């Protein structure tokens, strides 16, 4: 037991967000504790992976649970997964992964919605520790820019190995003042004009 506690304490710490629909649509369908645990593990695995993939494999789920929930042995795990699928909480299909056919599980769309990655999680994952000064800048940027822009700006900075908020902010400022090449938000800028992004409480963030 001490060994398990020590091992668990060394695991990376952090948080995930569960949407309101998880409690209003998913939980009422779950029949027992084992099923609830399995569904939470599926949510955990999906939410903590970069890019939030649409499914987790049976192997991934089994490896994550092993050593953390002794009561969820293979038989209990299989039963709980079957119940979750039967109750419409999880969907099950097969997928060819690296040349091997595996069972994969997803949270059903009508019972659970994956929340968008927030700007603070993106910063911690791609830049580093959030300081009080950065916190205020992130809050203002989150209110000023569309979520899709923020996520893509982080991706561009990481691709170019420019892992700093200063660089990411400049990407967002450029998109706001010049227009963004990919789709919807560039059209919105043309329609509403650049003042949409430079007026108001957070206009000082945008450099012309």
Report what the structure shows.
The chain is mainly alpha-helical. The chain has two domains: 96 residues, Winged helix-like DNA-binding domain superfamily/Winged helix DNA-binding domain (Arc Repressor Mutant, subunit A, Orthogonal Bundle); 87 residues, no CATH class. The protein is 54% helix and 9% strand. The chain contains eleven helices and three strands. A three-stranded antiparallel β-sheet has the order 1-3-2. A hairpin with a 2-residue loop joins strand 2 and strand 3. 23% of the residues are buried. The N terminus and C terminus are likely disordered.
Secondary structure elements and their pairing?
Layout: H1 2-9, H2 20-26, H3 33-48, E1 56-57, H4 58-65, H5 74-86, E2 90-97, E3 100-107, H6 119-126, H7 132-144, H8 147-159, H9 165-178, H10 184-192, H11 195-198
Antiparallel strand pairs: 1-3, 2-3
Rg over alpha carbons: 21 Å
Share of β-strand residues: 5-15%
CATH topology of the largest domain: Arc Repressor Mutant, subunit A
Mean pLDDT: 77
Terminal CA distance: 60 Å
Helix content: 40-55%
Following the backbone from N to C, one meets helices and strands in this order, namely HHHEHHEEHHHHHH
Brief account:
The chain has 208 residues and is mainly alpha-helical. It folds into 2 domains: 12-107, Winged helix-like DNA-binding domain superfamily/Winged helix DNA-binding domain (Arc Repressor Mutant, subunit A, Orthogonal Bundle); 119-205, no CATH class.
Comma- or semicolon-separated keywords:
single chain; 208 residues; mainly alpha; 2 domains; 11 helices; 9% strand; disordered N terminus; disordered C terminus
